[in-house]
From TrEMBL:
Species the sequence originates in: Desemzia incerta
One Gene Ontology molecular-function label: thioredoxin peroxidase activity
Protein's UniProt name: Thiol peroxidase, atypical 2-Cys peroxiredoxin
UniProt keyword Disulfide bond present: yes
UniProt entry keywords in alphabetical sequence: Antioxidant, Disulfide bond, Oxidoreductase, Peroxidase, Redox-active center
Chain ranges of the Thioredoxin domain: 17-161
Alphabetical list of InterPro entries matching this protein: AhpC/TSA, Thioredoxin-like_sf, Thioredoxin_domain, TPX, Tpx_Peroxidase_subfamily
Pfam families: AhpC-TSA
Top-level taxon: Bacteria
Length: 163
């Protein structure tokens, strides 16, 4: 799959999971140093918000928006994932005054499992997945232009419907 960044094309490595497929499991560290796995959220609806770089305007906006919107939906867990370092993520959260489940994928295990790594930029593609209580992907958006924001309302509706 190919996406663009300000019109320049970049190829994603691997195959992206599609709606209707079982979500690939992964295990990443959070800001407390705990390993968090998709399997930890069995019987919960999950929104996975993937951002290329927490220290950019659009990624910060996406993270703030989903943190605010998803926190209002009972029974839905938000996971935000980037390949920023733990310190970069921690500093951003501290600067924003937010406590959230932020996972760092510096080893690119999640990126490879979901086919979201862009070797040309050494970043993950901006994307969102909604996973139902059975572990099935019910919504997937890989934003075709990296500097654009995802469709927040479509994600929220998918999360509400999956409860």
């Amino acid at each position: 799959m190919e996406i663009t960044r300000k019109g320049t094309p970049y190829q994603l490595e691997g195959i992206q999971p599609a709606v209707g497929e079982k979500a690939p499991n992964f295990s990443l560290s959070n800001l407390n140093g705990d390993q968090v796995s998709l399997a930890d959220f069995t019987n919960e609806v999950i929104v996975i918000s993937v951002i290329p770089d927490i220290d950019t305007r659009v990624c910060a906006q996406q993270t703030r928006a989903f943190n605010e919107k998803v926190s209002k939906i009972e029974g839905v867990q938000l996971l935000t994932i980037s390949n920023n370092t733990e310190d970069q993520q921690r500093n951003w959260c501290a600067g924003e005054g937010l406590e959230m489940e932020m996972l760092h994928d510096t080893s690119l295990t999640f990126a490879q499992a979901y086919g979201l790594y862009m070797p040309g930029l050494k970043k993950l593609a901006r994307s969102v997945f909604v996973i139902d209580r059975k572990g099935t992907i019910v919504y997937q958006e890989i934003v075709p232009e990296m500097v654009d924001e995802p469709d927040y309302e479509a994600v929220i509706e998918a999360a509400k419907s999956a409860r």
